[in-house]
Each structure stands twice: as C-alpha cells, then as structure tokens.
Amino acid sequence: TQTGKLGMLWSSWGEGRYLQGVAYSESGTIDGPWIQEEKPFVGNNSGHGMLFTTFEGKRLLAIHHVDGDGPRKPQLYEIDDSGDKLILGKRYYP
Length: 94
Description:
Number of helices: 0
Radius of gyration: 14 Å
Strand content: over 45%
C-alpha cells in the first residue's frame, strides 16, 4: 500500500465458488507472518487479481469473473491503497 504495508492477493475456492482474498505481512517482509483478512476481498466467483495504475493515475484491480459455468470475463474495480489495507471501490467501466 502507499503506507508501505506489504499485502498479498490470492485466489481459492470458498463460499460463492471462486474468490479473491488478501493477506498482509505483519513483519513487512515476505517471511510474514501473514494475517489473512476474515472476509473475501471479492467473492461472487471472481479471482486471480492484479493491481495496476492507469496512465491517468487511477489504481485498479483486474480480476476474472464467471457467471454460472460460462467463460471467464475481466472485471475492473477501483482500489484505494492510501492506508494500511486495500479498500475495494466501485466497479470501473472505462
């Protein structure tokens, strides 16, 4: 995050099928220990998230989402990373 907090996005199965989780390193290093957030960062059969910054400076999360058993489709969400934790914003439509 912008405060220097080290986080890790991960994907796995859970309630609502696939989900995007996030954990934060208590030590600030890759060695952890890693503290898992209680609730999924994004649920609803979504995952494999990646953060990026647009040319205009907007921070976004790109994830794949599946409706039912259909094909995976990308979705973008605004992200606030100004504090110690990522905050999921509204869905972004370019």
